[in-house]
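Example 3.2
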Amino acid sequence: MKKPQNGVNQQPDLATKSLDNIRILVVDDHEIVRKGLHALLSEQPDMEVVSVASNGEEAMQMLEDGLQTDVLLADLHMPGMNGLQLTQSALALSNKIRVFILTLTDTHNFDQTAKEAGVSGYISKTEDFNALIAMIRSH
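Structure, written as tokens:
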């Protein structure tokens, strides 16, 4: 424990995350979703949100500029570059990135399309947050 000048013990700095954490880039055109996912994912001891983007083009610019991420968590429907187009572009840049798609759309007929694009997994925005965490950790 750190001992400040006032003599009160403090916990070590927990803001410094392990190098083994899952690094996540969150991409969604809705600010409330971006901020909510950032807050919830950042609470996970093995996850680190390295950045957020409001659209596919912004996310690709970050990746092209060298942002290091393990997971791209993207909305399916965004203005401009949608989640599947972003998946294909991101995987062309680095095949090590795992892409997970969030959607409000019925996922019934989405499976084949997602696989063809290279998506690692997808989940409805109506699912429980723990299902999202489990999906990210399982891949």
